[in-house]
Structures
1.
Amino acid sequence: MKRYETLSVFPEFFEPYMSSSIMGRARSKGLFEFHAHNLRDWTHDRHNTVDDAPFGGGQGMLMKPAPIFEAVESIQTMADAPAHVVFFSPVGETFTQRTAERLAGEDRILFVCGRYEGMDERVYTLADEVISIGDYVLTGGELPALCAIDALVRLIPGALGDEMSAVDESFSSGLLEYEQYTRPADFRGMKVPDVLLSGDHAAVDAWRLASALERTRRFRPDLYEAYMEGGADGETGAS
């Protein structure tokens, strides 16, 4: 069973999402475990302080190294196998579907969530890897952790019900997903492509590939170029 854990000053942030929809169903089926750890449990003053002013001055507060070191070292002893430790930072590798597929091979992952103006640089020596979910600023690492866990749970066999669902989605082949339609076949004069109503599975598959290529070329030319350079088998580094 996969085991995903978070270390945060707001552990209550996670449970509503982890108990809902696909995450909740997969968890209730025993496909993965989830544990949210409270960083303040590893503080030793009456205010449970996890932050302090940065040396050299500047805006905001930084997360102190001592609680994070104690927490990670303690959490590593809470299961038979050590956790793969992931921190979030703008300097990290951008999280993509390829990253998710690689991390899906880990049986236990601990996501360390920062807050405030950031973390003391020394804590990154605890990381097995550092990742970023994009070039924008958030108030903390909780949302990035949820994004990563969501992407990982979807890759667990049985989590989606239809085993092909995770394969047949945007980014899995290096392309955006093809256009999709449902009933009615004619809505306000906008008609579903005839081929999707034909029952010809080979023709539908060909149309879907062409649609995926065109959508990727139009909306994500970077992915399109990477896919074409890698060949039609989709074995590229595209996200």
2.
Amino acid sequence: MNGETRRTAALTLALAFGLLAATPAAAMDGSMLLNFDREELEAEAGETVTVDLVASTHGNSVGNGIDDLSATIEYDADVITVADVEHGPMLAAGDDDATVDATAEIDDDAGAVTIDQERTPSGSGAKATDTVVTLTLEIDDDAPSTTETLEITDASASYPSDYSLTPVDRDLELSIEGTDDAVPGFVPLTAVVGLAVALWLLYRR
């Protein structure tokens, strides 16, 4: 075997090994979006509102969807209370026999709710755009006018093969109309008139 033939064979082997090494990654290729059903939400002090956390994935290149999902939603506990967490059907998509085994831990002291969900049986996983959880939020009666963020943190998911992926996430901006919307220093007209009348009567004495 001459030098040129040896170089060609070496290059062929290198390319072959490169393709083999890339195959597992290609087979696991895929992406996932985790976001709320809206980017902005308005609420008033004392109001109760609901918002959906939604997952969206078309699966990976070999046709598998996800079979487990976890995430934490962080919020300002001085202004917001998570009153309820209702798990949605996203992970059960595509199989009438699949169910969602789920837990939710609300830590109002820390201002965080952590969800963990698993598809049973895994099958080929879920490929869908659907609700993961519905959160019921109570706005504090004395909340000031402010803008808060529901922030998605520590989000992760995996395929039935246990290959994991990190979802692309988008937070929610919550605009609150609070109890401090009156103009500072503003005195109602009736109070001004009443004061004027009292001073006039006092002056006439």
3.
Amino acid sequence: MALLKAENLTLGYDNQAIISDLNFEINAGDYLCIVGENGSGKSTLMKTLLHLQNAYGGNIIFGDGLTKKEIGYLPQQTQVQRDFPASVWEIVLSGCQSRSGLRPFYSREEKKLAMESIERMGIGHLKGRCYRELSGGQQQRVLLARALCATRKLILLDEPVAGLDPIVTAEMYSVIKELNDEGITIIMISHDISAALKYATHILHIGEKVFFGTKSSYLESPMGRMFVGEEV
């Protein structure tokens, strides 16, 4: 059974539909990149998958034992969020909130998981630092460590390399690919089509027309050829 399946989804905001009858599914271990023009509904789709907003129609079905509490999320940051006055440890540990439920404290196991996630992202030396003092790349690693505290199954990333320099961008893509190679399913919104085509196993292209399929099928499609700048 698919890890996540969208059936006839209709999405929108402010009482206006922007996507209708959207269908796709991903299996455990897939790496799905969501691409398309600005304003096409990519972020709206991700918020709907996370149950941060409701679909106007259709269904999102979880399989393979996945629940909505087991999804890690790396969002786009606002300036206020970048300046958040908390320590790296506090932010990463907060990724265990879905595990702790109504308990007013974190368990020993959750603290161990947070430390393992910090070490996995190579930011152990930053544990006591204030988040807002970090570079953009360091902040993204902190948020990815936080996402790892929520899941070992599925991580959703919304433009995870936005604003990063080329070297840090390459490092970030490498880390995400390593997580995927370890079995974590990835869903990533990206404007970087070259990176999408390098790392993804599947492409969901949202626009006036919708494409969902393997990377190779996308490259052979008229939509894919047009979007990567080739002649149709």
4.
Amino acid sequence: MSRSDMNMAERARFQGFMILDRFRGGKIEEKIRQDIRAYNEGTLIYETNEKIRNLIAHAVRTTAFYSKFPEDVELKDLPVVNKDTWRGDYDAFISSAYSDRKGCREMTTSGSTGTPFTMIQDPDKIKLNTADSIFLGMLGGYAIGEKMAFIRVWVNNVKKSRLRLKMENSLMIDSSSLSDESIAKIMRTLRRQRVKVLVGYSSALGEISRWIDATGHDTRKYSVRAIIPISETMPDTVRARLKEQFNCTCQAWYSNEENGIMGLQLPDSNSYYINSESYFYEILKMDSDEPAEDGELGRVVITDLTNYAFPILRYDNGDTAVAHTEIREGRKKLFLTELYGRRSDLIYDTSGHAVTPYIITNNFWDVQGVAQYQFIQTGLKDYELRLNGDRSLMNVDDMLGRILPTLGEDANINVVYVDEIPVLASGKRKYIENRCPEYQR
């Protein structure tokens, strides 16, 4: 569980963390080993079923919301919930066993797709989530203790103290501004601090990649060994370019504040490996709570097997995906072969069929003259393409020709030129958005 290219100080941090965990009972190291075995062989199905039964029984005994159900109720017979359900009766979901919240942690969402929401995590969940993060970090090329830079908008509720940053050997790099001057400053910090791992919003990393190309910046003397995009879909072209620019891996985490890091993008595809040791995923049909078939687009519904302070059972997190399940000798592996993101921002063609966001992002990212773009569906057959950049270089007819065959030749695409694509309060930038009233129901 170590990296050969770690320096002495980084290796000391890694070893010190593991020694401290062993002193405290070794729970994190044990979970990491379980995660590794599940990755190689699959998760034992009977163990997952037992975890689900135990979690349901606990929720029935200790929460007001689930108290009306019998302890042996099947997961499929429980209601599907979402953040609005939780907000509507928040206290009813908190376990009475953790009413004092001793040792618990509060995780607050950014609110980029709605009102911010606070999730309570119990002490065991915190430890197991730490183990999962270490494991999925290792898969992505990051070993705990290595110099890491986290690029995001650092609002007050997520800022870290200087002591914690020093302990983690990490940097907070703010992406509120991504002007040429700001990116140049970021790059100087990455080189001077010998940062080995970049974790950050996909859009921010994309802007850095674009700046490198635009300026011809030489990245050969940087120490970056791994890039881990988060939060937003990264176009294949940007991912490939970052790998070339830094000569390193680039694999996205699948995560949220409510649950933690749940999966990792595979090295050479857009598929995500999901950590089934800690999460039970259902992919349900788009218009009902019936299971979708393997290979069918559906809603991501999560049961968090490790959080007892706020039992998360059948949580529709708003994402849509296509799943592939492998079962062998009583063990299961789950992959999301396509991850579409928020259902509210899913684009549909003129016949009403869902369109993968990669059709848009991969076709538009490398167009000459385009600094930023945003693609919005406004009606059943109506779309708006917002462009920021050098109009004299943009070939709009070529851009439309790339996507019309997918959307439908009867698509009405209105092109609008803007000076800036605004970022959300969280610092994320929406490249794809659906504002069609018929699809917001």
